[in-house]
Design a protein that fits this description.
The structure holds two protein chains of two kinds. By secondary structure, chain A is of the alpha/beta class. Chain A has helices at 44-51, 83-90, 108-119, 124-137, 153-165, 183-198, 210-216, 234-239, 244-253, and strands at residues 6-15, 18-28, 33-37, 59-64, 67-68, 71-74, 77-80, 93-96, 171-175, 202-206, 219-224, 227-233. In chain A, helix 3 (108-119) runs parallel beside helix 5 and helix 5 packs parallel to helix 6. In chain B, helix 3 (62-93) packs antiparallel against helix 9 (191-221) and helix 8 (178-186) crosses helix 9. The chains are: A alpha/beta, B mainly alpha.
């Protein structure tokens, strides 16, 4: 069996008394689309944020592309990496937020080119050409010079996806990408994500869109109280859940 | 075919009527009363012991013009120093490093906690504490030669301003959504780059009005530097009235110049606000 792109081993995270993650272990293969479902507070978003190191883990380890994230092992102890090293590790992942978090003082195009030009120090003209290609991919070429405040929620989220892709990540993380959208705008964002999945991108998606999960996900994971309750192929977990808690969650959602 | 909703009767159609203008007679009355009071005050000044010819003559006197130029030079330089120190102190204050945090908090505490005029006098008289200053082995000078009125005023005003500006900048940076910082991190930015490229430009929109306020305060605070012999406009006016005893006339001259400068600054601030509102006001355009 080939090495997984993401390997999560016994990861725990507490916020004060609240246990957000309780010894979570998980593998994600390259090219796999994995959907995380569960009630709010079940730990799915925290797991995603730990992979992108926006939230440091308390214990356990996450390996991305064979590299241990956030810490380095030396003499039987773990040492935290410097901010610079963590920033470098983050370049391998792209993150899409529930509330888009586009930079409001920059146009759609500038939002996309900011990372490659400023962080990766790449040639501006070359990056701009790529950014226009990404805008074409998410169907927003005409909005290149629009500011986020001039875009609808769905358009903003599509720009946010393009911004993450511009960094050429090996893994895309989606944190409830459609939860802040009006119902009629959900479809356009999901179709961009479907196209991305078809192109072979490795994706971890926290979502409440079970239809999307059923159609696109290779694996669905149901989480509750910071732990993985059930995982397996989408058709099995969503169509014929084995665990009582999965069943009651699914019947509550549908 | 359309079906209109069923409507209850008894509500007349007023859609064609216009709204009549209100007769604001109280406003007219108040305005008239204010005009009477202003006229009385004006008359009192005209008849009072003020030689208006002196005001006119000294308004453009060379010493006064040099004074207002010195006032503006000092205000701009001290404010620039204040903004640089304020931004640095605000960034230190918001850093996770407890040492940097304490240093910034201590700086604000010290320079906000003592009167500005006292700080100016301290800088000007620093030679009493350190007769010579310099870097050992490299450069050395007598403090009285280095601490000119200009440098004392610049340090006193600028460092004091920095203590206030740091709080304005901190408020501006806190007003930016945490998600902006996370998005910047997610595309691989470090703390300082995220502050410079993402957080500060957005904070500027919020801090421009209070900073404009601070700058107007600074223009007037330069007048305190007259106590350490810095030749700004109030100092020039004082020197003249020591000679000719036209105290009120010269104070009116200086006051007019301050008012003029502040009147010019207000529209400049609006231009600046528009510049930093990029992306934010697009909907109302």
């Amino acid at each position: 069996m080939t090495q997984p792109l993401v390997a999560i081993r016994s990861v725990s995270k507490n916020f004060g008394e609240f246990q957000a993650l309780n010894k979570v272990s998980l593998d994600v293969r390259a090219g796999e689309v994995l959907c995380l479902i569960g009630a709010s507070g079940s730990g799915k978003t925290t797991l995603l944020r730990c992979i992108n190191q926006l939230t440091p883990v308390d214990s356990g380890g996450i390996w991305l592309d064979g590299e241990l994230l956030g810490v380095r092992e030396e003499g039987g102890r773990l040492h935290r990496l410097t901010e610079r090293q963590i920033a470098r590790q983050r370049l391998k992942t792209g993150m899409v937020f529930q509330r888009f978090n586009l930079f409001p003082h920059k146009t759609a195009l500038e939002n996309i080119t900011e990372g490659p030009v400023q962080v990766q120090g790449r040639n501006r003209a070359e990056v701009q050409a790529e950014a226009m290609e990404l805008l074409r991919r998410v169907g927003l070429v005409a909005k290149a010079d629009a500011y986020p405040s001039q875009l609808s929620g769905g358009q903003q989220q599509r720009v946010a996806i393009a911004r993450a892709l511009a960094m050429k990540p090996m893994l895309m993380l989606f944190d409830e990408p459609t939860s802040a959208l009006d119902p009629e705008l959900v479809g356009e964002v999901l179709s961009v994500m479907k196209e991305l999945a078809r192109s072979g991108m490795t994706m971890m998606v926290v979502t409440h869109e079970l239809g999307f999960a059923r159609e696109v996900a290779d694996t669905v994971i149901y989480m509750d109280h910071g732990a993985i309750v059930e995982s397996g192929p989408a058709a099995e977990v969503l169509g014929a859940p084995r665990e009582v808690r999965t069943k009651s969650f699914l019947s509550a959602v549908i | 075919m359309r079906t209109a909703p069923a409507l209850a009767g008894g509500f007349p159609d007023i859609s064609g009527m216009t709204v009549a203008r209100q007769a604001h007679w109280q406003r007219w009355l108040a305005a008239a009363a204010i005009l009477v009071v202003l006229a009385a005050i004006g008359r009192a000044f005209v008849n009072g012991q003020i030689e208006w010819s002196y005001v006119g003559r000294f308004l453009t006197a060379k010493a006064i013009l040099e004074g207002i130029v010195n006032t503006m030079v000092m205000a701009v330089l001290a404010m620039s120093l204040g903004i640089v120190l304020g931004v640095v102190a605000a960034i230190m204050r918001l850093s996770p490093n407890p040492v940097l945090k304490s240093v910034a908090a201590g700086y604000t505490w010290l320079f906000r906690g003592t009167p500005l005029i006292l700080q100016l006098l301290l800088w000007f008289n620093i030679a009493l504490v350190f007769p010579t200053i310099g870097i050992p082995g490299l450069w050395e000078a007598r403090a009285v030669d280095v601490m000119t009125p200009f440098l004392s005023a610049l340090l006193g005003l600028g460092i004091n301003q920095g203590a206030y500006t740091s709080e304005v900048m901190r408020a501006g940076m806190l007003s930016v959504d945490v998600g902006q910082y996370e998005a910047a991190q997610a595309i691989g930015m470090g703390r300082l780059r995220a502050l410079r490229r993402i957080i500060l430009p957005q904070a500027m929109r919020v801090v421009t009005p209070p900073l404009g306020n601070e700058f107007i305060g600074m223009v007037k605070a330069t007048s305190l530097a007259s106590v350490i012999q810095y030749p700004e406009v109030l100092h020039a006016a004082e020197n003249i009235y020591y000679a000719n005893s036209r105290v009120i006339e010269l104070l009116i001259v200086a006051g007019s110049w301050y008012l003029l400068v502040v009147s010019i600054l207000t529209p400049l601030q609006m231009l600046l606000e528009r510049r930093f509102a990029r992306g934010a006001l697009q909907i109302t355009r």
